[in-house]
Design brief:
2 domains, DNA polymerase, domain 1, hpI Integrase, Chain A, mainly alpha
Amino acid sequence: MKELIDSFLDYLSVERALARNTISAYRADLNLYLDFMEKRGITLLSKISKNDVVEFMLFQKSGGISPTSISRRLAAVRMFHRFLARERILKSDPTALVDSPKLWKKVPDTLSLNEVESLIVQPDTRNWRGVRDKAILETLYATGMRVSELSGLKSDNVNLEIGFLRCIGKGNKERIIPLGKKAIYGIQRYLEASRPRFLKGKSSEFLFLGRGGLKLSRQSVWKMIKRYAKEAGIKKPIKVHTLRHSFATHLLERGADLRSVQEMLGHSNISTTQIYTHIDKERLKSIHKAFHPRP
């Protein structure tokens, strides 16, 4: 059965042009799915029924998996079975009548403006590594880019003269994002004083570099953000997209329209962006509770 996963993932990569991270997640989800079926004694895909799919979801729930993750895994399983049915490998799709678990959208954690400022000033710009780190933090907050997008950002995709960068997001979708003055200054200083130290005479197409002049991994960026947040004394949980969430929230708080924020974030569906309007409502509720004479 697992050979068919490879065929399905090849289809997603070649014909659907899905991002490598998405394909890796689908592979992990489908391997879990087929392992579950094999433990139930099901070794043929044609023997999987709707009830088996539902049992897989219930098993995930009993293991403490969140509704969001269960829905993502179900989406992978659905696409897999639809592919098999379309290719006539299977006669029917057992997921066709399976309902998705109801999702409660969790409002993402964000930083206040003061917390963002405190985070960004943490790198020691008296040394060249600190210059790079500050440029990274400025860029993430100025653009709302995903950490993986920043990791893959190429030097040719940044135009400091006009103050824009070209970002390649999920599914190889391209978007143009403005850069603020502080981010431009941070990148300029990095290019002049820091990047040559990482390259050591070598060349690289990627903008932000790590040891040996290699592309900086998203894991390295994530660890760096967590370290500086700790040094800044930020007590809130820091996650990989905290600066991205803060970028969107702060724009909306200051009157940016939802469509523009959607475009800058690279969301294909505006309903994904609307989660940030809930954050603003929660902020207003907290202000009302704190200052109204009859809260």
